[in-house]
Amino acid sequence: xxxxxxxxxxxxxxxxxxxxxxxxxxxxxxxxxxxxxxxxxxxxxxxxxxxxxxxxxxxxxxxxxxxxxxxxxxxxxxxxxxxxxxxxxxxxxxxxxxxxxxxxxxxxxxxxxxxxxxxxxxxxxxxxxxxxxxxxxxxxxxxxxxxxxxxxxxxxxxxxxxxxxxxxxxxxxxxxxxxxxxxxxxxxxxxxxxxxxxxxxxxxxxxxxxxxxxxxxxxxxxxxxxxxxxxxxxxxxxxxxxxxxxxxxxxxxxxxxxxxxxxxxxxxxxxxxxxxxxxxxxxxxxxxxxxxxxxxxxxxxxxxxxxxxxxxxxxxxxxxxxxxxxxxxxxxxxxxxxxxxxxxxxxxxxxxxxxxxxxxxxxxxxxxxxxxxxxxxxx
Length: 379
Fold this sequence. Notes:
The chain is an alpha/beta fold and 379 residues long. It has a single domain (14-299, 302-372), classed as Rossmann fold (3-Layer(aba) Sandwich). It is 54% helix and 12% strand. An eight-stranded mixed β-sheet has the order 3-4-2-5-1-6-7-8, with helices on both faces. α4 (98-109) crosses α7 and α14 packs antiparallel against α15. The protein is elongated and about 85 Å long.
């Protein structure tokens, strides 16, 4: 069982989220290396075994999710995870493929001939694969697709391991700014080729761009933007609908952290950002804590260890381990106290560090027990 995170903190009730049929989306965010993917997978697994039909989407390119779920390789389409006959619900998993999602969006919203023209455009090939911000746009698109399909009653999102994890919230605004930018409007101006454009009112600016990126690339960009003008408009509308969905009570944002200074600073940043965006924050998951299992003070343990070092070295070793754990727990509680002081209303659930790697379904179930504060019911 997990231990109370702090005497004054409200416990985060993840069991209630799982059991609530109105809970439709859970977004796990946090810095790298804090167990965010494990948290997302464990929560999704527990929800599926409790009767929910769940899909877990990872935007993190790492393969940890596939490994822990026992799936050989995750693709851009949800695939079912084998849970056994005792599971009451279903679990599906997928990993965002930025290029594939962009391609699918073009195929769905344009004619076959137009799609072939777009796919052959060198500028599209660059944008769809590596252009800054494309991952966030496509994450919003994929999340919207999953919600629109209506096949799952719970979507769990595992975001990238950085402060950029919440950049997908900006996708509608950033895309609108991009499409409404002065240079973009000039490049997309109907009836004006690149040659006439260079001699027009924006000649100096466009000549400068042409000098830097080359005339052919500018032409490719013009053709690409004109081809996708209506598509981008539709995408912006869909992204805005998805953003609206994320801001409603059916969505729960979980900030995941470890009891380390940098991780809790990042967690504080995420909490502030979600508050600014008025997003529904469920609470903080504090992973890999080291609670003490005895009230014996560290100095008393060390004194006792010295006294029995010769006669009982094994007991002495256990006492020294306990002393180190007391010190570690004290440090972790101090860090958590600073967080709760800044965010006193944020509910918290802690998950103790495990003596084994979380790399399969059974290990995920152990994490799920701690997240929910209850052992899994078995048939």
